[in-house]
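Before relying on records like the one below, remember that each one covers exactly one chain. Contacts with other chains, cofactors or solvent are not represented anywhere in the record.
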Amino acid sequence: MNKTDIKEGMPIVCSDNKQFAEVDRIEGVFIKVTKDDEGNHHWFPLNWVTSVDDKVHVDRPGQQAMQEWSDEAPTLAA
């Protein structure tokens, strides 16, 4: 997986092949997800990504991913 293959607006699908989010952008080693219905962004690490085609596929069910992603911007220290 090459993070340059991940583009703004791509659907993010869980291991059940259902969309649960959309890419806002890459921030360091994290994907920033577009705002949810409450107007909040979320972040999750790129190491969740299993593959990228016309969608970003992650290694866990959507409900689990949404429980585990961060509600705060990660520290982007190298």
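The chain has one domain: 3-68.
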